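Narrative summary of target 7.
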Amino acid sequence: MSRIGKLPIDIPGGISVELDGSHVTVKGVNGTLERSFSPLINISKEGERIIVTRDSDEKHVRALHGTTRAVIQNMVTGIHAGFTKVLEIQGVGYKAEQEGKNLVINVGFSHSVNVKAPDGIEFTVTEKNKTITIKGANKEVVGQIAADIRKIRPPEPYKGKGIRYKGERVRRKAGKTAAAMV
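Modeled conformation, tokenized:
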């Protein structure tokens, strides 16, 4: 039995969960999330808990069991509290600015890069335009947007310039040294 899959999911107050077969809808203060899951996994609601079970012990069904439970837990957590990712910009002249809901990033290109905020995602720029905070209810979308922004200018190993996750350590390399004259 999956250690993660067998754990029940507690539903906090102020959140409603609707089950329609293998389709789950979570509604709350931060919006609504919907997702359809494999019909091989059984999802049931018992009081203020969601229970995820499986009928088969086949390998692909066992893999779906823990994943389904984790995704439903992330939906409930996202609607209740939300998810955030923080990116840092390092480099002389590198900065990010907020224009309405969208983001304008200047990181050493001849042009600025515009990033549109998808539905349910909110950008915040702080600390002298060097820190970007991405907030949203959907964990997958928040992580993907953060990865896409980081991909614009990933940190390079010689000077460390670029966009990185907060707390990310960039392994630095030594640059070339001049050959010793004889």
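The mean pLDDT is 92.
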